[in-house]
Fold this sequence. Notes:
Elements: E1 2-10, E2 21-30, E3 33-34, E4 39-42, H1 51-57, H2 70-81, E5 85-88, H3 91-104, E6 116-119, H4 120-127, H5 135-142, H6 154-168, H7 206-222, H8 228-231
Parallel strand pairs: 1-5, 5-6
Antiparallel strand pairs: 1-2, 2-3, 2-4
Amino acid sequence: MRQLFLDTETTGLSAEGGDRVIELGCVELVNRKLTGNNLHFYFNPGRDSHEDALKVHGISNEFLQDKPKFESVAQEIIDYVQGAEIIIHNAAFDVGFLNKELEIAGHKPFKQYVESVVDTLVMAKQMYPGKRNSLDALCDRLGVDNSGRTLHGALLDAELLADVYINLTRGQEALLIDVGADEGKPGSEDAIDLSGFVLPVIQANAQEHAAHEDQLAQLDKASGGKTIWRQTQPA
């Protein structure tokens, strides 16, 4: 599967209000391995960045003066993302800006060129309800080194997002076993008789019970009291 981790930097917060994309970064992952086939552009937006946006990304208006217009490389971007699964943190923001840029360049909306768009912010909120789920917060929680992120940058943030995503989804790969040259061939694994093993049952102590109840309460609060385990508990 070809997956692309995408991030943008912009002149401000409103694509409909005239703000433009000034940087695009994409990192390619194929079969959960980084390929190095990345895409990175700075753009001349034809307008100045808002002061608050400059504080976030630090990309000066002067630096962007000799950079290409988005529309001049739009087809190259479309060709690169074609048919891939796109993974974005807070996807609605980036996709909204990309749609506006593509519209200005005379192209179809972004999602018509790609297989699908996955929002890691939505994923993180489901996995860690009630907690901070910014990219920096996820890096800290999942042990991803973001020490080089003093300012936002599209390519750096896309690289960090790839690491975060791999950690978020690592459990999905936990049952895959490397069996060498015979990997994937039925019957290539040696059968193991587990009938002689007796596994100890370790009961939770009072502190662990309390921590568990606290976690359930947080999930219950985040879901508006719709959690199944609360609804099915005996009165």
